[in-house]
Each structure stands twice: as structure tokens, then as C-alpha cells.
Amino acid sequence: MQQLSGLDASFLYLETANSPMHIASLSIYDPSTAPGGKVGFKQILANTQARARRVTALTNTLVEVPLSLDHPYWRSDADFDPEFHIRHIALPKPGDWRQLCIQASRLHARPLDRAHPLWEMYIIEGLDNVEGYPPGCFAVMTKMHHAAVDGASGVEIAAAIHDLEPVAGIDEDYDPVQRESVPTALELIWRAQVNNIKTPFRFISVARNTIPGFARFATGLAKGKLNRVSKIPRTRFNTTVSPHRVFTAVQFDLKDVKAIKSSIEGVTVNDVAIAICGGALRKYLVAKKELPQRSLAAMAPINIRTKDKLGTAGNQVSQMTVKVCSDVEEPVERLLAVHHGTQQAKELTNAIGAKSMTDYSQFIPSTLTASAARVASRIGLANRGAPIYNCVITNVPGPQIPLYFTGAKMLSSFGMGPAIDGTGLFQAIGSYCGSFNIAVSCCREMMPDPDFYQQCLQESFDELFAATQALSNPESKKKAKKVKKKARKKVSKKS
User: What is the CATH number of the domain that holds 19?
Assistant: First the structure.
């Protein structure tokens, strides 16, 4: 058995009735590429079962330590029930985008059953009137608990169940997952006592390695060389969440996003995505007459998975807090401000070391954290005090080559994340085969009109694209230089 790290276990401890802690993907497929032009549910069941048996994250079951004396363990269980995990449903007619989003929202709101491996897959048929997709497509929504995977490892697992050609090929030459016996309560308690004895020595080792980073952090702040995001405003997204969810997404051409990036030296695709979200949040909150004077801030996960950890499950992530510059109306100025802010956030993270905080997560007290999360939810602690950040914006690039699932070609794939007390808005950035998308999952009480927010994202992108392309126009180089210079001065004054 393998024990969960403190970071992995924290997603179990923080789970409440209103906040299931799983991540999900919603992918749309065209079955016309499959042999015979059709894909049956039994084919999907057999294909997925064969592949899942060699992916440990799909066969592990959770073993909790009695009295929560220590972090839980993963136990390999090769005999999982595929018909429990893989389910078949269909949209009612007409089968349009709105109905798909509503169905995905309902499925996303349901927690996973901890008595089974922590994942589910829903095959959704009836997508006959989704704009931009041919009739007869089907969707696959896959849910996996955040304790088992992060965004990067989720992409790797998705790659394991897909092919590069329409003809599915299952390599039988592999070592299948071996089933492990269930430990007794006495064995688990004994392991917990041994670990508790070792914990102080592990803490000393981690502290010794991280003290220099914290010293650089403190010195940088004192001398003004480092800046951290502070005085984050409270918004509608920073209260306790309901058990209900909404989902929507918008897609752009990746070439257009890269054209925006190339218009200003040093700007990254991630900067462009954050600037688009910042503009959309500004538009949305202006319409609600709730726009704060100060910029909203987002938590941006950082993948710290090293080469030797590729292909492994679990979480290998840190985080940084970045301003989305929702207080800046002009698109180019906002993009420059976002770029400046992400550079500062990276410097701050590098000073401490991205891995430092994840090292300390292994010392999370297992006996108290789950109870504290439930109490905090019950008393509405998220409604008091200043928020740590307003939303989550995560960017997980996907493959730029076509993938096939049981012969059907993947046309699009969208990410979904958890809504938790204090941070009910999750925006997942993804790319696949020349397309770039922003997928939004949120508490329904906080965002009752996801279609309007989708419109805000589209308008924010359109304005940013038009403004940056004007800068690249040879006929307006002088004007472009003035706009950039003016924007940089404003950014420098704010920082």
C-alpha cells in the first residue's frame, strides 16, 4: 500500500457535503471515425476496462486509518466493477449545448463514493444540436478525486485511455495492477504510531531545507524587491457555496491567442488567459454593480512535477496568487499589468521555492483538519474576513495532435474543478489541436447566469484581440508605441 501525502490527503479532509473535491473533464467525440462509423457502449466499457487495469489511479481504493490517526492509504484493487464506474445516459431532445452544460453541472455536483476507486465516467449521447459539432456526437465526462490526481497527472491518465489512431490498439504486454490485501485495524494503528514517532525528525529535515528560502522571502519583502498580493476585495464568489453547480465554456483559435501573446514582448499565453478572465470578471461585476475598486486576485496552480515523477498519480503542485487586473478597463493596459503581476508572483514563488509549501503539507494534522473544515462550513467562516483569493485560474495545456477514444475522434475537451467555501469560481484553461478554451465551473448561487459570463469572456477576448492587432498594424506604429508607453507608466505607478 502507498500512503497519501499530506497534500493529497488534504483534499479528502477539506471535502464537505456542499464541496465535493474532485476534478473533471468533459470531452466531445465524433464516432464517424470509428470502424463502421459507430461506437457502442459495450465497446467503450470493454476498451476502458482493459486500459484502466494498468492505471493505478483507476484501480486504487481508499483505506482510512481508524480514528483518523494518520493519513489514509491507497490499496490496489484489480477487481473493480466497470459497470459501477462507467455509466450511460442521454440528453433529451433537442440535445443542445445548454442541455449538455446543465447535465454536466448536475453530475459535477455529486460526490464520489469512497467505498470504490475514486472515479466515474459518464457516456452522454444525444448531442444532435450542439453548435459547431456534427450530429451524432457523444460526450464523455470523467470525474476523479483531487486526492488521486492533479491537472497534469489527469492529462497523463487521459493519454493512457486514448489512441493516436482511430483503430484502438491494446498492448497486452504489460504488468497488470496487482490486488493487495486489506490491512487490519491493528496494522493501521501500528503504522500510524510509527509514523508519528518519525514526524518530528522529518519536520526538522524539511525546515532545514526551507529556512533559506523563507529568509530570502522575508528579506525581499523588507527591501521592496518582492511584492505580494494583499488587500484582496470580497466578491460574490467568496462566500459559502451551495451544493449546486453551473458549467459553461468558450473556445478560441489558438493562433489568435498566440497572436495576442506575440504583440507584446515577454507576454505569455498564460498572461493572455488571465487578462481575458480579468476582463470578463470586470464586465460581469460591472453589470451586477459589484465591481470593487481594487483588482480581483486568482490562485494559479504551479506544476512542480519533475521528470522522475512523470506518469505518477497524486498531486505535485504548488501555487501563486496573481492579480487579474479587473480594475483596468483598457485591454492592452490590462495585459501589461497582468504580465507585470505574474512576473512578481513568479519571483516571490522562486524566492521561497515552489516545493516548500507542499513539503510542509505532509504535517497536516489528520485528526483535526476534516473536523475543522466541517465546522468552518457550518458557521460560515468564509463569509468573514478578507479572502485569500477570489477565484482559481489553472492552465493545463493539452496535446496538439488528434486523440481517439474507442475509435471516435476527440473534438474538444474542457476542464472542471471544485467550488469550495470562499472560492466558488473555478476557471480551467485548456488547449487541444489548435483550439484554446476557458471552461467555467461555479456555485450556482454565485453565478446563476453562466451564459452571460460566457458572453463576457467572448467580449473580453474580442476586445483584447482587436486592441493588440491594432498595435501590430504597420500603419499605426506611432500610435502603438504611445499606447504601450502610456500603459507601462500606469503599471509602474501601481506597482
Answer: 3.30.559.10
